[in-house]
Amino acid sequence: MLDYPALSAMAAVIREGGFERAAERLRITPSAVSQRVRSLEEKLGAVTIVRGKPCAPTELGALLCAHLDKVRLMENDLAAHLPLGAVALSESAVTLGIAVNADSLATWFPDALARFTASTKVLVDLKLDDEAHTAQRLRSGEVLAAVTADPDPVQGCQITQLGALRYVACASPAFAERHFPNGVTPGALAEAPVLRFDRRDALLARWMRAACGVEPSAPTHWAPSTAAFVDLAMIGVAWSLNPLPLIRPHLADGRLIDLAPGHQIDVPLYWQAARLEASALRRLTDAVRAAAALSLEPPASNRP
Q: Mind telling me which PROSITE patterns this protein's record contains (predicted)?
């Protein structure tokens, strides 16, 4: 039988990054947190936390954190059926870890969160990552749900096809006139400054191969911010690929132009959530599906 107060202390250290902040979160002393974690590790015969700044979970620690999250979600459902005045099952609010990519968070995902939080007191802990890597956060146990580009179901999870986030290559009219006077050509793409999100961002290479059969080689500005991509493109710093739902108003008012009409690129997105009979996960999944249906391109299988 697991010691859940000790398990809660371990999870707090991992989530807060250290023993002192965990103590503040749990409203106990740092020595009490340390004693609970030490007791847990002695009973398990294994280390759960890599001590450092910040502290990090071992593989076992991550699994135990995921287990605790699932237990708290189930307890949250059970609490509704307990007699009034019964002792609370958990000392802290239930928080649901979700991995999501930056472009979804900047476009359609806030609508999903608004729908979800309107019907529950469960809190969310968002983990930003590239859509190609969010599924790994599920596999590690760091989160219980994720927006991902990975079509392969994570073990123990249910998968839902959401649709596709469409991207458009765009720039300010002045930038396009200066760098693409003859349209988008391999030569122009090799010279015009471009924006990339980070070193793992493979979307630009996909678009350039599809549009002109070339690889990225132009001067590159690095900006790990969805909002910055739009702002920097509008003021003429570089051209960039941007989510259509985010830039549609700027295309309409002429502040941005589509550099290559007919060469948009779609990134299929999926929702993966732990296969757990918890009402919070069901409500979240319903909210995500509803929000995605309003903003994303239909899944390929549903297109005419």
A: HTH_LYSR
Q: What is the DSSP pairing of strand 49-50 with strand 56-57? A: antiparallel
Distance CA 29, CA 137 (A): 31
Structural contact between residues 161 and 268, judged by C-beta atoms closer than 8 angstroms: yes
Q: How far apart are the first and last CA of the chain?
A: 54
Q: Which residues contact 258 (CB under 8 A, 6 or more apart)?
A: 168, 169, 170, 251
Q: What is the mean pLDDT of residues 221-226?
A: 96
pLDDT on residue 84: 57
259-262 contacts: CB < 8 A, separation 24 or more? 259/169, 259/170, 259/171, 259/176, 259/180, 259/184, 260/169, 260/183, 260/184, 260/211
pTM: 0.87
Helix (H) or strand (E) segment spanning residue 279? helix 279-295
Query: pLDDT tens across 175-220, in order?
Result: 999 999 999 999 999 999 999 999 988 999 999 999 999 999 999 9
Residue 54: cis peptide before it, omega within 30 degrees of 0: yes
- Which residues 6+ apart lie within 8 Å of 64 measured at CB? 2, 7, 10, 11, 48, 57
Burial readout 46-59 (b: 16 or more C-beta within 10 A, e: otherwise): eebbeeeeebebee
Amino acid found at 125:
D
Q: How far apart are CA 88 and CA 75, in angstroms?
A: 9
Q: pLDDT tens digit string along 103-156?
A: 999 999 999 999 999 989 899 999 999 999 999 999 988 899 999 999 999 999
Q: Residue written as tokens 């779609």? A: 266
Strand locations in the chain (E): 49-50, 56-57, 95-100, 123-128, 145-148, 157-171, 194-196, 220-222, 240-243, 257-258, 265-274
The DSSP string of 105-121 is: HHTTHHHHHHHHHTS--
